[in-house]
User: Fold this.
Amino acid sequence: MGGTEILQRLKSRFGPAILDTHERLGDATALVERGSLVEMLRLCRDEPALGFDVLMDLTAVDYLKYPGREDGPRFEVVYHLYSLPHNHRVRLKVRVDEDDAVVPTAVALWPIANWLEREVWDMFGVRFAGHPDLRRLLMYEEFVGHALRKDYPINRRQPLIGPAH
Amino acid sequence: MGVGSFFTSKLDEAIGWARKYSIFQYPFVTACCGMEYMAAACSHYDVDRFGAGLPRFSPRQADVLFVVGTISHKMAPVLKRIYDQMTEPKWVVAFGVCTCTGGFYDNYATVQGIDTIIPVDVYIPGCPPRPESVLDGLMKLQDKIAAQTQRF
Assistant:
């Protein structure tokens, strides 16, 4: 199934919950509403014609001070889905604000989401509601802040032992 | 100089000679430099020529700690503990530019040189170091071992 058809199918099913779509050079992308995210991911996985059985990646983008996005929600959580039987892909994006940086978890759909969501929490400070074990994945527990946020000072060091050069 | 000091200085030399040819290393390999370490340690370049051919995988049996690869702040306490577990006499080799200075990883995650945590005897820079520089570093370590005052 081509990207246009995938997006068309999602739009016909969810209508207004899909805020925006774009497709360029085969990267079909849908910007979706947070409330219908899990339902949409479940449809993507379970509907035979879509068959997105692999969550390739789950990451986030910090749009702080990004030209043209100054007043919009700060974070975008991105889901990269891939279908082994159909060999097609789609991306779903959810926008969340800094004050309310919570997204429903996808652990029930793909077990790999467990660690991917922990990484996003660790690096960006976006929480995942319903996650069974939302601890830092890469950094140590004593680490303060979230290292990949654009306002994390580039020269800030938090060593466990040794000087804070 | 009496007979006694002549005797101890000769004994020092003898022990130094023995120690420099029985380097039991502990390879603390964390990153890509490990491949280069393996290449330098295997038969083509052959560190066994310098008596360093038998890596020990317990710090309690090792004399020289080879720190090979990037050390993150999360890994730093582990490295410190490994160093503390080694028995005297012990030496440390910083293998690769990441262990020497942090290399190009000037970021939140990386220790800016392992000498901020543990003492280092020989630095082998390079990303990764060529086998020739590894062997050069090893020979410098041998000279250092042979020349120092031996405690036993």
Summary: The CA atoms of residues 25 and 85 of chain A lie 21 Å apart. The interface with chain B takes residues 138-140, 147, 152, 154, 156-163, 165 of chain A (CB under 8 Å).
